[in-house]
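Let us practice reading a record.
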Amino acid sequence: MKSISDAILAGDRLSLARLITGIENQRQDALNCLDQLFPFTGKAHLIGVTGSPGSGKSSLVNRIAQLYRHPGEGHAARRVAVVAVDPTSPFTGGALLGDRVRMRDLSGDAGVFIRSMATRGALGGLASTTSQVVQALDAAGFETIIIETVGVGQSEIDIARLAHTVVVVEVPGMGDHIQAGKAGILEIADILVVNKADQDGADHSVRVLNQMLDLEFSDEMVGDHGHYPAKIKHDAAAPDQVLRFWRPPVLKTIATQGEGVAALIEGFMDHQHFLELSGELKVREDRRIKNEFDHLLRDGLMARWRKEIADEWYQESLDDVMKRIYSPREAVQKLVRMGSFLLLT
């Protein structure tokens, strides 16, 4: 696999696509290649885009990627990768990977790589191998990687653990301030976007979100130099005044027309700057790697335990639960003890 990893580092897109397919199928040769590529990771800015179904996430991601590739005078174009996750049907096992249809404007651009993924039953808005695919794209030299989650809306915990910058996309008329509060968006969002801002109620949505943020970020909490201002400025003469808190901005966009996308990308840059100045970037990167490590450790231990436990033991324990002889917790504890004994001997 050394030649494949070399080809990926050299920018070969076909080798990268084949590697990602191998990662999704958890082929051992692909995982070995990923191990070789790991030292070349940790350079990309990871942007997570999440929100409810129909909020226009894919259209917005399309416009973001276009602007990164053609930023205008004074800005350098960035290589952009897009990982778009779509739900797998619990009935047929299939998935409609429709993001390539919405992002057809990006086709033919060698500086853009789009990969659609099915969740394959995973919960949390991402596929189980999304983090590994992002790692491959990072090693391949893409400077910005955009991860679009499944349209769930209230439980995007996985994307908050994976991305450096999390964007939550809302649309007018999707609920009142109570809904905004209970959805947890204020907890995971680094930037809030009210898309389809040409619809009625957009200004009201922005006002409600800002009111919720006002409750979250009081003046007493953040102080004079502790929160996100209109534009981040770092005073070299006062390094002790490095920003400590980031107050998510609420931005309006009309993705189908490209309106507000330039301001959104400015928000990305501001947040990336904040992460670097405050030291939060290392915190998030360390947390991301720890999450990946723990995930692989759990899967590895589970696979080894399942291999050691005889099928009849598993079935007998399940039958005991069905007959109400043991509770599910008691049966699991019994199997865990049996598995632990076998692993130690």
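A brief commentary: The longest strand covers residues 45-51.
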